User: What shape does this take?
Amino acid sequence: MAREFAYVILGGGVAAGYAALEFVRRRGDAAAGELCIISGEAVAPYERPALSKGYLLPEGGVRLPAFHTCVGANDELLTPEWYKEHGIELILGTRVISADVDQKTLLTSGGETITYKTLIVATGARALKLEEFGGSGSDAANVCYLRDIKDADKLISVMRSCPGGNAVVIGGGYIGMECAAALVANKIKVTMVFPEKHCMNRLFTPKTAEFYETYYTSKGVTFIKGTVVSSLEISAGKVTTAILRDGKRLPADMVVVGIGARANTALFEGQLAMEKGGIRVNGQMQTSNASVYAVGDVAAFPVKLFGGDVRRLEHVDCARRTAKHAIAAVLDPSGAGDIDYLPFFYSRAFALSWRFYGDNAGEAVHFGDFSLGGTAGGGAPKFGACWVSAGRIAGVFLEGGSPEEYDAIAHAVQRGAAVPDVAELAREGLAFLVREGRRGAARAGRLRGCCRGGEKPSYAWHATVGVAAAVSMAAFAYWYGWKAPYVAGRDF
Assistant: This one.
């Protein structure tokens, strides 16, 4: 059996939904046999950020269809009916087992051959497993990962099976921190274990990490740093104890593993050029094969802000932006130009909310109040760090900012605002960054959306922790973890 499509989107994650919406807005409804989305999941594309926040709430958790794409960017809700109405075929629950980019064919596990004229690879990334570091135990009934709805459903089921129990979280990155907060909300006692000196080692400075670790500790989370889980003791198919490298034993009613992710490139190894662990693309998201584009977690693309340095960025904002740009380039190559992306990461946990723009390269200059006192009585902390490289702002991290402040610092990073005196930046802190950002925005003749080619920025809307409304829950950040050696190989 064979089917033909002009355009095929391979992968059913966030990027697929945003690519579909961009296609319809630029081209109109798809004709029969024109566009399909092939996904291994059984549901239409959805906003993965909801999985690590609203979906895991102990009461009133968000459920589909409330967080299908593209509500995370204040845009349309693309239900399965939406795709049907616009002529887009959803081929769900289908795994592609081989691809031939020269013949422009995809072979599914069911034996079907699907041909295309243009392929958009949106295969995303997968969670790294314990076994990839020489460990074992992933198949235990109470060992959880978090990447898709099936993972989230298992995590909920395991949490409900051990109320008031002990959870060991392996990894101190996005997934580890986000899941730890969700576990606390479900009244589970949490111990986090990771080999680095502090949490979020790839982004946080030691001073920034100290604040979050202190805050998490105040919520009952225990941190064990500078070591790894060397083995998991299993009885009757369930983990009962996590054993650290030094022999310390941690009781475990459940284990959550967040040790990084790896791009899903296997189908195209040896066929497309690879770089930075992903598929290398140009500024139009086009791969080394002219009929194939790649977007989201799987794409390694040149970032203008970094002088054209190729980066692979695992975050929902990047998935949205690169997907839209790829469609623009496919349908209007001369008009689309090269992507000009401002790297942007964000997250929420408990009553905290931070955003980061740019690159954490250069000298870090801290500002604001890093004490927990700012959170007392319902107040919110406000502090951050600014990275200065070659006399210019390279990146900014800010906790507790207002939408206007975030917009201003995004401008400051995008234009590489000059820092003639680091001491002045240290003294003025956020005021300096906001002033420089607004100055640049005024000079450019616009205030909002400067970094996105005039688009409505997806980061402008973020829900409040604990809000039960399903649609608002879709805005919560899915903390994609950077790859990191959280578990020692051959120590299990």
Notes: Residues 446-492 have pLDDT under 50 and may be disordered.
